[in-house]
Design brief:
single chain, 178 residues, alpha/beta, two-stranded parallel ribbon, two-stranded parallel sheet, 8 strands
Length: 178
């Protein structure tokens, strides 16, 4: 999630991310490495699957943590659209990519994004809206909610403010995956 990203990022888009979110920053660094490797070895077939947030019974992810909090912090006035993927669908995509030669990057996600507020309602997770300038200020507002502040907000604020959606047209057209 970044204010400069297009609404539905295609595979050709070099995604922006918050420098403070190590997980996504590492994924971007891996893709940069892979692109450099492919320039040196253009004869190789290399498939990169960009997964949306994977959810499913027992699958640990920051979004799953956010959705399972007793009370989830959100940003007042912001309802970003998100895409998710069930872990069984992620497995199907991996198997399909291993069985056939698909060269390139493919976004793998559910076709219909949902607003975060709707996901929270589906999960029956109440939310507490935080005034966004206060959230971004670094103020230790979390102390007002809990003495334990580690992992109280499992996602960076930008992920509670901006949409994080991708185009899945290439995976549908070239891989036949939906």
């Amino acid at each position: 999630a970044h204010p400069n990203n297009p609404f539905f990022m295609t595979e050709e888009h070099d995604f922006q991310c918050s420098p403070g979110y190590a997980y996504v920053r590492d994924l971007r660094d891996i893709e940069t490495f892979i692109n450099g490797f492919l320039r040196q070895h253009p004869e190789m077939i290399l498939t990169v699957l960009r997964f949306a947030n994977i959810l499913g019974h027992g699958y640990p992810s920051p979004l799953a943590h956010q959705l399972s909090l007793p009370v989830a912090p959100t940003l007042m006035g912001f309802h970003p659209l998100l895409q998710v993927l069930h872990r069984d669908d992620a497995t199907r995509a991996l198997v399909k990519a291993m069985q056939e030669d698909y060269d390139g990057v493919y976004n793998i996600a559910a076709s219909d994004p949902l607003p975060l507020c709707k996901m929270l309602r589906i999960c029956r997770t109440p939310n507490i809206p935080i005034f966004h300038p206060l959230a971004y200020s670094g103020f230790r507002w979390t102390r007002m909610i809990s003495k334990r502040t580690d992992n109280l907000v499992p996602l960076p604020w930008d992920y509670l403010r901006y949409p994080w959606t991708v185009s899945i047209e290439k995976a549908e057209a070239e891989m036949g995956f939906s």
